Amino acid sequence: MKYAITAATGRFGIIAVNYLTKQIDPKDIVIIARNFKKAQKLFPNLTIRTGNYDRPNEISKALSNIDRVLFISSTVDGGEITRLEQHKNVVSALKRNHVSYVAYTSFTHAQNSKSSLANDHKFTENLITDSKISHSFLRNNWYLENETNFFKIGKDKKKAIYWTANRAGWALEREYAEAAVKVLINKDAKEIYEFSGSAHTYEDLGLALNQVLNYKCDIMRVTKENYIKYLEEQGLSHQNSEMYASFQNIIDEGSLSDTTNDLTTVLNHPLTKLSDGIKEIIIK
Ligand SMILES: NC(=O)c1ccc[n+]([C@@H]2O[C@H](COP(=O)([O-])OP(=O)(O)OC[C@H]3O[C@@H](n4cnc5c(N)ncnc54)[C@H](OP(=O)(O)O)[C@@H]3O)[C@@H](O)[C@H]2O)c1
User: Fold this and answer.
1) What distance in Å separates the CA atoms of residue 242 and residue 78, rounded to the nearest whole number?
2) In this structure, are 157 and 121 located in the same domain?
3) CA 211 – ligand 1 centroid, Å
4) Is the pTM of this model over 0.85?
5) CATH number reported for the structural domain that contains residue 81 in this entry
6) What is the pLDDT of residue 78?
7) Can you list the residues of the chain whose pLDDT is less than 50?
8) How many independent structural domains does the chain possess?
9) What is the DSSP string of 128-164?
10) What is the pLDDT of residue 284?
11) Whose CA is nearest to atom 12 of ligand 1?
């Protein structure tokens, strides 16, 4: 049985590969990456194949004689063509190679979400379903690492400042990656996993941050306009301040607030406490 992980040189991929090598014989693992040299440096003892999502023939060759694939979704600004086109190339390559199973990193409630971030994932899920390849959709909620700036500003300026009061199901990226591998190697995997931590607010994150720091930072909810102004006062351009503020839109619109216990069930252990997760992020 041959296992492959695509986009293996990103943060998610590296964690997943390292975890997979502890679960199965490394000889049965194929690393697929667009940058062969980078992959070689990261995984000197594993089989590596070049696989750029932009290049249909290359990704198809990379997936030959593979049984089970962890397909890590591309980055939004990934390459020369749209992410949608990239994902079409991958699904066509999976079909062409008669891969028996694919686990795809999707987006929380991809089929019903009103978030624009869900669009590519909904489309890719549909392509995979139509391909008739046996599959699991790993619908990941929010990475705690997405809030690194919130933690850093809280730590450095003693102000944990945010604008939305809504909730998200944050968990560490390494927890989603470990769960992805557990699903990949499980022959009885379910079709859909809604992976998330428990639902929390930024106020909860601020309180957890205060458990980590040896001083208390002010946890402050402000309007979106004042949040943008605050970031500008910290030296960010208006454009960047608006962009950072917009990252909370998805939480504000409620797209990440519906959580499940799928992640702890698959991991078969509790999730890292928020304060310990924050410690991991700001100490890195
Ligand atoms: N739920 C969330 O909160 C959340 C947050 C962030 C991201 N995500 C999703 O999770 C995925 C993995 O995140 P990450 O932290 O691993 O991102 P990352 O560290 O930026 O890694 C992205 C990976 O995609 C690869 N890649 C980019 N364009 C490619 C292409 N055309 N063909 C093949 N590979 C390509 C990169 O290759 P190189 O190493 O050569 O650059 C890298 O290995 C993201 O792509 C995104 O879909 C989810």
Assistant:
1) 22
2) no
3) 31
4) yes
5) 3.40.50.720
6) 56
7) none
8) 2
9) HHHHT-EEEEEEE--BGGGGHHHHHHHHHHSEEEE--
10) 66
11) 12
